[in-house]
Amino acid sequence: MKHMEYQKEISLLLDGELDSASQRKLLDHMSECADCVRVYEELVSLNDSLATVKFSLADHSLADKVKARISGDSSSVSDAWKFSLLKQVPIWALIAVLAVGVGDKAGKTLTEALSAQDSSPKMDTLLQDNSESLSDIALDFGMAENSQ
Amino acid sequence: MGRLESLSDHELVKASQNGSEIYFGELVYRHTNLVYRIARSITGSHEEAEDIVQETFLRAFKSIEKFDESKSTFKTWLLTIARNQSINIVSSFRRKTFKFFSDRDEDDPELEFSSNPLSQETQDAETQLSIKQQFHAMEKALKKLPERQRSALLLKSQESMSYEEIAIVMDISVSSVESLIFRARKKIIKLVER
Hints:
The complex is a heterodimer of chains A (148) and B (194).
Chain A: H1 3-14, H2 20-30, H3 34-52, H4 61-104, H5 110-114, H6 120-126, H7 134-147
Helix pairs in contact in A: 1-2, 1-3
Chain B: H1 3-6, H2 9-17, H3 21-43, H4 46-62, H5 74-91, H6 93-99, H7 125-143, H8 147-157, H9 163-170, H10 174-193
Helix pairs in contact in B: 2-3, 3-4, 3-5, 4-5, 5-9, 8-10, 9-10
């Protein structure tokens, strides 16, 4: 095995990623190779140094900020849900109004239903209300014919 | 220890998948530093790392239902999201042109000397200075590594992740992780020696 390959195995050994057979082989080699022992020591020292270059947050303020944003997001999700529910209310209200409206227009023609004017005033002009019923008018009309 | 703190990530994830914000909040507390470190190591910026932490957890919360524990751990899944977010930011035009080559603020309060057993208040000023110099030399050397080498090395040396987990986070093969870490170590030793 080449020297560089042993050094790569030293890196694996330090990380606990070397199988036992390879470990034995490497340790045998290191017992005779000063260069590889030096590399091993350098890598151990490097690992120690890397542990010191560790960024860390001083407190939980960032975590608190994250939690607040998550709460905000999920409440905005529920707000959106509420809003969509509210948006649906007018639809139901519209349906109810339409139902009532259609009921009110029952018995009328489409033109009458769509017309802003009610038809009843027209009937008033045709049949003047002298507090007489339709049968009284018909009776009066019959009597006039007979008298002729 | 509170009730939430006694629960495992697995239990918290399950509860979060049932829609519990409180349980997910505990996961946020547990892993904020971890996500911050990976984001910081990729972007080199405290502000951007903070933004990435927020975006990562928001994305994770929104897609927690899709998370499959048979494929990876929560930590691995979270770091995958964080790394992708960080790379997107680094790749952006703004980052490339204005930020990437800028140096860290020397007064950055986020450096963790306190966790280092050598950095207790009992140390004399000379030792403190020596540690600080070592810290800056190492940080400078880390910055000179290609992003993939730096990420793989830090995930191993600082987060103690297995090669398999690193492979998942970085979406590469285990043998690539081996090579990246080895090359990173060789290069950083040379850089620090100079």
